[in-house]
Design goal:
The chain is α+β, with helices and mostly antiparallel strands and 103 residues long. 56% of the residues lie in helices and 14% in strands. The longest helix has 14 residues, at 8-21. It has a domain at 25-96: Winged helix-like DNA-binding domain superfamily/Winged helix DNA-binding domain (Arc Repressor Mutant, subunit A), CATH 1.10.10.10. Strands 1-3-2 form a 3-stranded antiparallel sheet.
Length: 103
């Protein structure tokens, strides 16, 4: 690892973030929002989930600063909060598809 070792407080925040990412539904929501901002209704319909459940997960993801919301007229659109989040998702998806023989 290059750079300073994270503080105990930072480690705790990272652990909580990874705990949130451990939920398959939240990961599906994040991947669905990877390419463009999406309204709650679109996320719910595309993933075959209730809007209430999607809203609950988005609230948690927003609290962890993994997504951000932008109101446009009467709809709220959600997107990944920044490139760090999208890069991490893409990198981990790529990682799990690597051939173990390459190690």
């Amino acid at each position: 690892m290059s750079g300073p070792v994270p503080s105990q407080h930072e480690i705790t925040i990272l652990a909580e973030t990874f705990r949130l990412l451990g939920d398959p539904t939240r990961l599906r929501i994040l991947f669905h929002c990877l390419d463009a901002p999406k309204p709650v209704g679109d996320i719910a319909e595309s993933l075959d989930l209730s809007q209430t459940l999607v809203s609950h997960h988005l609230r948690l993801l927003r609290g962890a600063r993994l997504v951000r919301a932008e109101r446009q007229a009467r709809q709220v659109f959600y997107q990944l909060s920044d490139r760090h989040v999208s890069d991490m998702l893409k990198d981990m998806a790529s990682h799990i598809n690597e051939d173990p023989a390459e190690d």
